[in-house]
Amino acid sequence: MNLADYTQVSNFAVTSGMIVVALAFLAYVAEWGFARQVVKEEQPVAVGAGGVPAEPVEQESASRSDVLRSVAYSLTVLGTVVLGLAMVTRGLASQRVPWGNMYEFGVGGAFIALLVYVVVARVSPIEWVGGIVTGFALAVLGLAVSTYVEPGPLVPALHSYWLVIHVAAVMIAGAFFLLGTAASVMYLVRQRAEDNGTVGPRLSRFPSAAVMDRLAYRVIAVGFPLWTFGALIAGPIWAHYAWGRYWGWDPKEVWAFITWVVYAGYLHARATAGWKGKRAAMIAIVGFATFVTSYYIVNLFGSGLHSYAK
Q1: pLDDT at residue 60 in the model
Q2: Do 196 and 143 touch, CB atoms closer than 8 A?
Q3: How buried is residue 149: exposed, middle or buried, by Cβ count under 10 Å (0-12/13-18/19+)?
C-alpha cells in the first residue's frame, strides 16, 4: 500500500468508527429508556428434614435492558478497534505519530477515551456511564472531522519524542476526567431522585449515589497525576527544548494550569474537608469544562505558540 491508500483507509475507518460509536450511543440511550429493575423471584421448596424449609432459590429474570447494555458495550469495543485502525493508518500515511493537528488530536482523544472506558469496564461495572462517554466521543469525532486536513509533516516545534509523552499522558488523563465527570453527572441525577424519593425502575438499574460518588473520586485521583506529569512536567520540558523556555503563560499553558488547580482543589477538599456529594460533583464538572477549554476552545479560537495545533 502507498501513502494515499493508507490515507483512504484511515478516512474510511474514522467514518466507520463514528457510525459504530453512534450506534453504541443509541443502544446505551435505549438501555436507559427500557431499563427495568431486575426481579428476583423466591420460589418456596419442599420442607426439609426436621421441618426446616430449604434455602429459597433466587432466579434473576433477564430484561431487555441487559441485552441492550451488552450490545452497546460490544459496539463500543468495535468502535474503539476501528478508530485504533484509523490512528495506525493515519500514522502510516503521514509517516509520523498521528498527533500533529486538531483533526488528529480529536480522533486520538476519542479513541483513548473509549479505550480507557472499555478497559475499566472490564474490571469494574461502569457500563452505566457508557452513554455519556460514547456521546462525548461522538461529539469530539464530529469536531475532528470538521477540522480535517490531509496528512503532512510536523511543524519543527513538534519534532520531539516529548510529543508522544506529553500528548499521551494528557489524553489518558482526559479520559479518566471524562469518566469522573460522567459519574458526577449521573450522581447528581440519582441523588436528586433519592432525596425526593422518586427512584423508579429505571434509576434502580444504576448504582446508588454513594457508589457513583466514589467512582468519580477514584478515577479523577488516577487522572490527576497523569495530568500533572503530562501538562505541567512533560509539557514545560518540551517547551524548553522547542522554544527555549519552560513556561511562558501561553493561553494553553494558562488553561492547563487552571485545570490542574481545579482538580487539585477537588482532591484536596475531599481528602481534608470531607467534601463529598453535590459540591464535589459540581467541582468535577467545572474541572472537566476547563479541560475542554484547554484542549479545544483555546486551540480553535486562541493565539500563542500553540496555535500550530489548529
Answers
A1: 39
A2: no
A3: exposed
Q: Which amino acid is at 117?
A: Y
Are 60 and 38 in contact, with CB atoms under 8 Å apart? yes
For residue 1, is pLDDT > 90?
A: no
- Written as nine digits, the cell of 87 is 490512528
What share of the chain in percent tops pLDDT 90?
Answer: 53
More confident residue, 1 or 77: 77
Q: What's the CA gap between 15 and 145, in Å, rounded?
A: 9
Grid cell digits, residue 65: 435492558
Contacts of residue 76, Cβ cutoff 8 Å, sequence gap at least 6: 21, 24, 114, 117, 118, 130, 133, 134
Give yes or no for a contact between 56 and 44, defined as CB atoms under 8 angstroms apart.
yes
List beta partners, residue 43: 57
User: Which is more confident, 64 or 251?
Assistant: 251
Q: Which pLDDT value is given to residue 232?
A: 93
Q: Which three cell numbers stand for residue 212?
A: 457513583
> Amino acid identity of 165?
I
Q: Does the pTM exceed 0.85? A: yes
Q: Is the pLDDT score of 200 beyond 60?
A: yes
**How far apart are the C-alpha atoms of 43 and 148, rounded to whole Å?**
60
Maximum CA pair distance of the chain?
86
Q: How far is CA 49 from the centre of its chain?
A: 56
Q: What is the Cα 147 distance to its own chain's centre?
A: 21
Residue whose cell numbers read 474541572: 287
